[in-house]
Amino acid sequence: MLMQKPALEMCEEWKSVWNQYKDRLTPNRKSGQELIDYLSKEYVLTEIHDKKAADVVRFNVTMNEVHASRLAPGAVPITKTYYVENQGNGCILYENVDEIFKDLEKIFVGIDVATGWYTVEGSSMLWDELCAFQGVDEVDIQNFYCVAKYIDCLKRFGWLQKMLCE
After folding, report:
1. Positions of the chain with pLDDT under 50
2. What number of other Cβ atoms are within 10 A of residue 104's Cβ?
Protein backbone atom coordinates (compact mmCIF):
# COMPACT_ATOMS: atom_id res chain seq x y z
CA MET A 1 0.00 0.00 0.00
CA LEU A 2 1.58 3.25 -1.12
CA MET A 3 0.92 5.84 1.59
CA GLN A 4 3.30 8.62 0.54
CA LYS A 5 4.21 10.61 -2.53
CA PRO A 6 6.77 8.54 -4.44
CA ALA A 7 10.24 9.99 -4.71
CA LEU A 8 12.43 9.50 -7.77
CA GLU A 9 14.63 7.10 -5.78
CA MET A 10 11.60 4.94 -5.00
CA CYS A 11 10.70 4.74 -8.68
CA GLU A 12 14.27 3.74 -9.55
CA GLU A 13 14.18 1.01 -6.90
CA TRP A 14 10.83 -0.28 -8.21
CA LYS A 15 12.24 -0.39 -11.74
CA SER A 16 15.25 -2.33 -10.48
CA VAL A 17 13.02 -4.91 -8.77
CA TRP A 18 10.85 -5.11 -11.89
CA ASN A 19 13.89 -5.78 -14.08
CA GLN A 20 15.03 -8.50 -11.69
CA TYR A 21 11.70 -10.35 -11.48
CA LYS A 22 9.46 -9.51 -14.49
CA ASP A 23 10.72 -12.38 -16.64
CA ARG A 24 10.41 -14.86 -13.77
CA LEU A 25 6.74 -14.11 -13.10
CA THR A 26 3.82 -15.89 -14.69
CA PRO A 27 0.22 -14.71 -14.47
CA ASN A 28 -1.32 -16.15 -11.31
CA ARG A 29 -3.91 -13.55 -10.32
CA LYS A 30 -6.71 -14.88 -8.19
CA SER A 31 -10.31 -13.82 -8.59
CA GLY A 32 -12.38 -11.64 -6.34
CA GLN A 33 -14.20 -14.69 -5.02
CA GLU A 34 -10.88 -16.36 -4.19
CA LEU A 35 -9.93 -13.23 -2.20
CA ILE A 36 -13.20 -13.44 -0.28
CA ASP A 37 -12.71 -17.16 0.38
CA TYR A 38 -9.17 -16.50 1.64
CA LEU A 39 -10.27 -13.65 3.90
CA SER A 40 -13.15 -15.72 5.27
CA LYS A 41 -10.78 -18.57 6.11
CA GLU A 42 -8.16 -16.35 7.76
CA TYR A 43 -10.26 -13.71 9.53
CA VAL A 44 -13.58 -13.15 11.24
CA LEU A 45 -15.55 -10.91 8.87
CA THR A 46 -18.78 -8.99 9.20
CA GLU A 47 -20.39 -8.23 5.86
CA ILE A 48 -21.48 -4.63 5.44
CA HIS A 49 -24.71 -3.86 3.59
CA ASP A 50 -24.16 -0.14 3.06
CA LYS A 51 -24.59 1.70 -0.24
CA LYS A 52 -21.77 4.15 0.49
CA ALA A 53 -19.34 1.31 1.18
CA ALA A 54 -20.40 -0.49 -2.00
CA ASP A 55 -20.05 2.76 -3.97
CA VAL A 56 -16.41 3.07 -2.86
CA VAL A 57 -15.68 -0.23 -4.56
CA ARG A 58 -17.88 0.31 -7.61
CA PHE A 59 -16.53 3.81 -8.35
CA ASN A 60 -12.90 2.77 -7.92
CA VAL A 61 -13.42 0.03 -10.48
CA THR A 62 -15.48 1.96 -13.01
CA MET A 63 -13.55 5.26 -12.77
CA ASN A 64 -10.10 3.71 -13.23
CA GLU A 65 -9.29 2.63 -16.78
CA VAL A 66 -7.07 -0.31 -15.75
CA HIS A 67 -9.62 -1.70 -13.29
CA ALA A 68 -12.56 -1.09 -15.64
CA SER A 69 -10.75 -2.93 -18.43
CA ARG A 70 -10.91 -6.09 -16.30
CA LEU A 71 -14.72 -6.04 -16.45
CA ALA A 72 -16.23 -8.29 -19.11
CA PRO A 73 -18.08 -6.37 -21.83
CA GLY A 74 -21.41 -5.19 -20.44
CA ALA A 75 -20.56 -6.37 -16.92
CA VAL A 76 -20.82 -4.24 -13.82
CA PRO A 77 -18.89 -4.49 -10.56
CA ILE A 78 -20.17 -6.97 -8.00
CA THR A 79 -19.27 -5.38 -4.69
CA LYS A 80 -18.72 -7.07 -1.35
CA THR A 81 -17.73 -5.09 1.71
CA TYR A 82 -16.63 -6.26 5.13
CA TYR A 83 -15.21 -5.31 8.46
CA VAL A 84 -12.39 -7.47 9.75
CA GLU A 85 -13.13 -8.13 13.40
CA ASN A 86 -10.59 -7.81 16.20
CA GLN A 87 -10.75 -11.56 16.86
CA GLY A 88 -8.54 -14.53 15.98
CA ASN A 89 -5.97 -13.58 13.35
CA GLY A 90 -7.55 -10.13 13.15
CA CYS A 91 -6.04 -9.28 16.54
CA ILE A 92 -2.61 -9.12 14.91
CA LEU A 93 -3.86 -6.55 12.39
CA TYR A 94 -5.33 -4.37 15.13
CA GLU A 95 -2.19 -4.66 17.27
CA ASN A 96 0.03 -3.56 14.35
CA VAL A 97 -2.09 -0.72 13.01
CA ASP A 98 -0.34 2.04 11.06
CA GLU A 99 -0.17 5.46 12.69
CA ILE A 100 -2.33 6.93 9.92
CA PHE A 101 -5.14 4.49 10.81
CA LYS A 102 -4.87 4.66 14.61
CA ASP A 103 -8.21 6.45 15.01
CA LEU A 104 -10.21 3.97 12.91
CA GLU A 105 -12.31 1.57 14.93
CA LYS A 106 -12.69 -1.11 12.26
CA ILE A 107 -10.64 -2.43 9.35
CA PHE A 108 -12.66 -2.11 6.15
CA VAL A 109 -12.24 -4.37 3.12
CA GLY A 110 -14.03 -3.83 -0.17
CA ILE A 111 -13.78 -6.33 -3.03
CA ASP A 112 -15.17 -6.36 -6.54
CA VAL A 113 -15.95 -9.98 -7.32
CA ALA A 114 -16.05 -9.27 -11.07
CA THR A 115 -12.51 -7.87 -11.38
CA GLY A 116 -10.74 -8.88 -8.19
CA TRP A 117 -10.02 -5.26 -7.30
CA TYR A 118 -9.83 -4.67 -3.56
CA THR A 119 -9.26 -1.91 -1.08
CA VAL A 120 -8.34 -2.01 2.58
CA GLU A 121 -8.69 0.88 5.00
CA GLY A 122 -7.19 0.46 8.42
CA SER A 123 -4.33 -1.98 7.81
CA SER A 124 -1.46 -1.82 5.37
CA MET A 125 -0.50 -5.26 6.67
CA LEU A 126 -3.77 -6.73 5.38
CA TRP A 127 -3.48 -4.84 2.08
CA ASP A 128 0.00 -6.32 1.62
CA GLU A 129 -1.21 -9.80 2.54
CA LEU A 130 -3.97 -9.61 -0.06
CA CYS A 131 -1.50 -8.29 -2.65
CA ALA A 132 0.81 -11.26 -2.02
CA PHE A 133 -2.08 -13.74 -2.04
CA GLN A 134 -3.80 -12.35 -5.13
CA GLY A 135 -0.85 -12.50 -7.48
CA VAL A 136 -0.44 -10.69 -10.78
CA ASP A 137 -1.84 -10.86 -14.27
CA GLU A 138 -0.29 -10.01 -17.64
CA VAL A 139 -1.09 -6.30 -17.27
CA ASP A 140 0.39 -6.15 -13.76
CA ILE A 141 3.62 -7.81 -14.91
CA GLN A 142 4.19 -4.94 -17.35
CA ASN A 143 3.88 -2.36 -14.55
CA PHE A 144 7.07 -1.78 -12.57
CA TYR A 145 5.24 -0.56 -9.46
CA CYS A 146 2.85 -3.54 -9.41
CA VAL A 147 5.70 -6.03 -9.71
CA ALA A 148 7.86 -4.29 -7.10
CA LYS A 149 4.97 -4.09 -4.64
CA TYR A 150 4.03 -7.72 -5.26
CA ILE A 151 7.61 -8.89 -4.67
CA ASP A 152 7.86 -6.75 -1.54
CA CYS A 153 4.62 -8.24 -0.20
CA LEU A 154 5.74 -11.78 -0.99
CA LYS A 155 8.96 -11.14 0.93
CA ARG A 156 7.04 -9.61 3.87
CA PHE A 157 5.04 -12.81 4.31
CA GLY A 158 7.81 -15.28 3.44
CA TRP A 159 6.06 -16.40 0.25
CA LEU A 160 8.64 -15.33 -2.36
CA GLN A 161 10.51 -18.63 -2.59
CA LYS A 162 7.26 -20.59 -2.89
CA MET A 163 6.03 -18.32 -5.69
CA LEU A 164 9.29 -18.61 -7.63
CA CYS A 165 9.19 -22.42 -7.38
CA GLU A 166 5.63 -22.75 -8.74
Report:
1. none
2. 14
